[in-house]
Amino acid sequence: MAVHAHPDDESSKGAATMARYVADGVEVLVVTCTGGERGDILNPAMDRPEIKADIGKVREEEMARAREILGVDQRWLGFVDSGFPEGDPPPPLPEGCFALQPLEVASEPLVRAVREFRPHVMLTYDENGGYPHPDHVMCHKVSVEAFEAAGDPERYPGAGEPWQPLKLYYHMTFSKERIVALHAAMEKAGLESPYEDWLKRFEDETRPTWAVTTRVPCADHFETRDRALLAHATQIDPDGFWFVVPLEVQREAWPTEDYHLARSLVDTELPEDDLFAGIREKVSL
């Protein structure tokens, strides 16, 4: 189960991993916390009045195409996008949005989803949300709450029969090590790197980062990842940043998607190359 804040997040974080496990016969469920109703239109070709007027429906249709490409099931939690407040000081979040929900209210539908789907592994963001979007931070909170509560019959008693997931991971998609490797590979290939500004931001970065514990080989599924990304046409410019680095450069320089093992109820040896390490020895997937 991969828990994400908005439609398109599942295609930019962990998509090749999911496609790999789907190809291996694993059932994969994407849980999308909000509808992305307050997201900006980031593709100039889609920045049209009729798109803006029905952005929630458009993003729902984009998600349907992306989940078909990835081969995953998908479930909406039904909360409203909080938007990304900008300014100094930033404006208050809109009333009723996902990030302002009480934790138990926001977590209950995810606990229900965990108990119904019964995942062995959950994926989510770290406590900073990967980046500090209010919905990403809240996605982290509800994911940790659901992981810890879903197996306890005394918590959320009306949300189905208890089920305890065995491992919880944080996405480490944009680690400094990966960005440095891709930057070097682009320069080696004689191509202009898109990561100059990223490297400067890393120099100024002060917050602690989680160690990468798990690298999942999935280079054969990078093309599927990119097709899923492109399905989110309001959010992804086909001529933009995501597609500057050729696939062959990516496969050579960094053929994995990376994670931090945040919780585990099974024995496993680090580093790992499989999200199900320690689980395969105990259960039939």
Report on this structure.
Monomer. Zn(2+) binds at residues 6, 9, 136. It catalyses: mycothiol S-conjugate + H2O = an N-acetyl-L-cysteine-S-conjugate + 1D-myo-inositol 2-amino-2-deoxy-alpha-D-glucopyranoside. With 285 residues, the protein is of the alpha/beta class. It contains ten helices and seven strands. The longest helix is centred in the first third of the chain and has 16 residues, at 55-70. It is globular and about 60 Å long. The model has no long low-confidence stretch (mean pLDDT 95).
Any chance you could write out the topology, listing elements then pairs?
Blueprint: E1 2-4, H1 9-12, H2 15-23, E2 29-34, H3 49-53, H4 55-70, E3 73-79, H5 103-117, E4 121-124, H6 134-149, E5 167-171, H7 176-188, H8 196-204, E6 214-217, H9 222-231, H10 247-253, E7 256-264
Parallel strand pairs: 1-2, 2-3, 4-5
Antiparallel strand pairs: 5-7, 6-7
Helix pairs in contact: 4-9, 5-6, 7-8, 7-10
InterPro entries: GlcNAc_PI_deacetylase-related, LmbE-like_dom_sf, Mca
Keywords: Hydrolase, Metal-binding, Zinc
Subunit structure: Monomer.
Characterize this entry briefly:
Its EC number is 3.5.1.115. This is Mycothiol S-conjugate amidase. This protein is an alpha/beta fold and 285 residues long.
Q: Which short descriptors sum up this protein?
A:
285 residues, alpha/beta, four-stranded mixed sheet, three-stranded parallel sheet, 10 helices, 36% helix
